Amino acid sequence: MRLHPLTSLAAAGSTAVMTTAAASWPLSLTVIAAAVGLSVAGGAARRMLPVAAVILVPLALSLLFLHGLFFPEGTTVLAQWGPARVTAQGLQFALERTAQLSAAVLVLLLCSFTISVPDLVAALSDRGVNARFAFVLASTLTLLPAISSRLGRIRQAQEARGLVIRPGIPGRAAAFRWQAVPLVLSLVEEAGTRAAALQARGFGSAGPITSYRQVQDSPVQRWVRLVLLLAALAAIAARLWQPTAGT
């Protein structure tokens, strides 16, 4: 059974919320493994994982630096350089937060790289959402996949003209400065082209808009979305209530 785009959004959002609220190391690792496995099974891993690395590696390093060296509650000191102390508690806290954020980022990226923009726009419009807002929302959710795909085409074109990109993250980072300008210019040009296309298709008209694209939904998936929403709200409520219960 094919997932409705709103079901995919609900699953990704509720999973990110519940994983963050639970603050459980095993749950975070399970979600990370599931997101990576689903991306491999869906054929999105080659595009999604490099984007995830660009987001998560600096974030993980900053968390390790901040909490690993300057964690006030740390008692087990592993190393010390003046005011900076590497503590076991600080490293554990940093790794736990990194796992939580990685799980949330990966499930949201998985949704972004696998969801169908036309289906999402049609589904939102079918539920009375303004067509322009629906398109902006869908485009925002798929912005990273669009940039990743466009950057790949630019890199291939530059390599065909003789640009040598050294392997590894430093080599790609050095080559990115040659790719940034054509990337931005192409995105700006595409934005103008899309605006004209949307205007021609009646997105700016005041009257009702019809769509030839019909996205099939089912009562089962509607119930699943409701359960996911309630589960996310319950996880937030439990997280907020927990400190009060412990006092």
UniProtKB/TrEMBL annotation:
Main localization category: membrane
Entry superkingdom: Bacteria
Record keywords: Cell membrane, Membrane, Transmembrane, Transmembrane helix
Compartment(s) where it occurs, according to its Swiss-Prot or TrEMBL record: Membrane
Membrane topology: Multi-pass membrane protein
Transmembrane residue ranges: 51-71, 101-123, 223-241
CDD domains, per the entry: EcfT
Gene Ontology CC annotation, any one: plasma membrane
One Pfam family here: CbiQ
PANTHER family in alphabetical order: SLL0384 PROTEIN
Record's protein name: Energy-coupling factor transporter transmembrane protein EcfT
Organism the protein comes from: Pseudarthrobacter psychrotolerans
